[in-house]
Amino acid sequence: MAMIAGLPKAPSKYNPVVNPERALERRNWILGRMLQLGYINQSQYEKGIAEPINLDMPDRGVSNRFPYIGEMVRSELIEKFGEHAIDSGYKVYTTINSERQAYAEQAVQDGLEAYDRRHGWRGAEAHDKPLSSFSAFANTFPAEVIRVNQNSFDALMQDGSTVTVPWSGMSWTRPYRNANAVGGAPSRASQIVKVKDIVRLRPNDNKTSWALVQLPKVQGQLIALNPNNGAVEALVGGYNFYQSKFNRTTQGWRQPGSIIKPFVYALALERGMTPYSMVNDSPITIGKWSPRNADGRYLGMIPLRRALYLSRNTVSVRLLQTVGIERTRQLFMDFGLTDEQIPRNYTIALGTPPVLPIQMATGYSTFANGGYRIQPHFINRIEDAYGKVIYQNNPEYACISCISQQESNPQSADTITPDDEVIEVTNQELNPAEKSANPVEINSDYRQAQRILKSSSAYDMANILKDVIQHGTGRAALRIGRDDLGGKTGTTNDAKDAWFAGFNGKLVTVAWVGFDQPTTLGRREYGGVAALPIWTDFMAKALQGTPSAWVQLDAKAKAPIQRHQKEAPQSNLGPTPPLAQPLYRPAPVVVPRAPERDFDDLPGEEETLVPKNSTPPTMQVPKEQPKPKSDALDHLIDQVQ
């Protein structure tokens, strides 16, 4: 009551939500006046001023635990609902698996720092600059060097404390020369830092020892999709959001290199070739262009299967000649690439079309799910401030019967974390008799995804990509110890981009490493060296404890619908087919303005009264209304004011 009594004088000034300190001061003053006027005794007064404000309000705070995802949600709401959506109390449920998201962020950070250390120490972050102008992130803390010893140095932290970095925490710092060379190992601390340098330090787990680190200039990303419905389960757009807010997963156009080759090979399988068809790995010239293999060698006639897991460039170009450029461009668009980014020449077989990592994850999902094109999405549903669902995602599924099986046998479903909001269960539990008669009942509420590859083609391609890990350039992934993994390495000219795209039957993941301004990573930084360790670290943790899951061959599957047979409404989106849209964008529900329906929300069926005379009535002086009797609260307010 004292808090309420203090509001009428200045409601905004003494609002306990926005000005809790002033509100508390005003409340205590009111309590003092109540004590002076005899409304409360000394004991009640002391008890009252000891009470906190105790506001019972829902938490509307924004979590910054996964800022790349948070920024995607924020920009999506603003784009579709306007700026007011941020302060409207909307609750957005994403498809992100919080456990896998944490694994992804750690894998990207560790992988980029490992690359950075391989290429040496670039020097202090700054010199003789205010320490307060630097921020801590990625478990790195800015510090100013205040003393340099023979084999250690002392540094001042932002909290005013002083720490010592021993030789074991800085001995890795061989000086950077260029992308292909580092200098000799240092022998004393003065070769590494000097007084007034601003450096980055990282503590061990219990903060008893500190090590010198540096922020990588190289960048990377990782995206993980559910191949059955396109739900984004993890997404990391760079080394750290607070270093760079640019989201390389959804905004960074890069050349894919060899990870695009399976798309060309898939079309060859669609056109009648088999994994054991013999193909020619020999020199080839088209006009003035003579593509070469990365190792400079040629193997002659080899099986198509071997040509892919050894990533033979000349075979990819010959296959493109066989299947045709236009057919290949059409299939590229079905996989998720955009029309205007695909040139009409034979270089597309070697990965020249610019792509987004999320598009490559979409394409590889087709191999993982047996031939279907899924649509990536990261928002499951949106509720307004009152808990009303204003948007519910309804994705297309590659395997609807798989969802029905999970519903009828919940014990077989994957473990779900509290942040998971991927699937809304709608099937009712079957009775035992019904289960025996119809073990899998397909729920018609689910939408079927579009098939773009034959089941046999997707199955064959998945098995060839498994050979990449078993026998080819992705052998480092064998350390995970699973038999249900396939993928492809990719490296562009001069090693400006390093990729690894891989999957099992339940999860598709794409990792990329490169500089924002394309430049060489180094002559030995192939996809299997720079990107594959990030992919491997993530997949080892993300799939831990999950059963083996591989692509299934559906002998009864129907053939893909040809482009000219697709439904007419799909052609309304212009030259880029609907299957090439890189991201799902939820459209807001806009109710058209209709004046005649302004009173539809009134209760009952009262008739709307419309005056017959449009002339306004003459104004009359209103009679003075009797003053209502004041209650105890009004009397108290009058006295304390």
Q: What's the quaternary structure here?
A: single chain
What is the structural class?
Answer: alpha+beta
Q: Any low-confidence stretches, pLDDT <50, length ≥5?
A: 411-441, 567-591, 598-622
Radius of gyration, taken over Cα atoms and rounded to an integer in Å: 32 Å
How many individual helices? Answer: 16
Shape: flat
Number of beta strands:
22
> Helix fraction?
25-40%
The largest sheet is: 6 strands, antiparallel
Could you provide a short overview of the structure?
By secondary structure, the protein is α+β, with helices and mostly antiparallel strands. 28% of the residues lie in helices and 15% in strands. Strands 2, 3, 4, 5, 8 and 9 form a six-stranded antiparallel sheet that branches.
Describe the structure.
The strands form seven sheets. Strands 2, 3, 4, 5, 8 and 9 form a six-stranded antiparallel beta sheet that branches. The chain has a five-stranded antiparallel beta sheet with strand order 11-10-22-21-20, with helices on both faces. Helix 7 (261-270) crosses helix 9 (313-323) and helix 7 crosses helix 14. The two termini are 15 Å apart. It has 16 helices and 22 strands. A hairpin with a 6-residue loop joins strand 10 and strand 11. The longest helix has 21 residues, at 98-118. The protein is of the alpha+beta class and 641 residues long. The chain is flat.
Break the fold down into its secondary structure elements and pairings:
Elements: H1 2-5, H2 20-36, H3 42-50, H4 67-81, E1 91-94, H5 98-118, E2 126-127, E3 141-148, E4 153-157, E5 162-165, E6 176-178, E7 181-182, E8 197-203, E9 210-213, E10 219-225, E11 232-236, H6 248-251, H7 261-270, E12 278-281, E13 300-303, H8 304-309, H9 313-323, H10 325-335, H11 357-368, E14 372-373, E15 379-383, E16 389-392, E17 396-397, H12 400-408, H13 432-437, E18 447-448, E19 450-451, H14 455-471, E20 486-491, E21 497-503, E22 508-514, H15 527-542, H16 632-640
Parallel strand pairs: 17-18
Antiparallel strand pairs: 1-15, 2-8, 3-4, 3-8, 4-5, 6-7, 8-9, 10-11, 10-22, 12-13, 14-19, 15-16, 20-21, 21-22
Helix pairs in contact: 2-3, 5-15, 7-9, 7-14
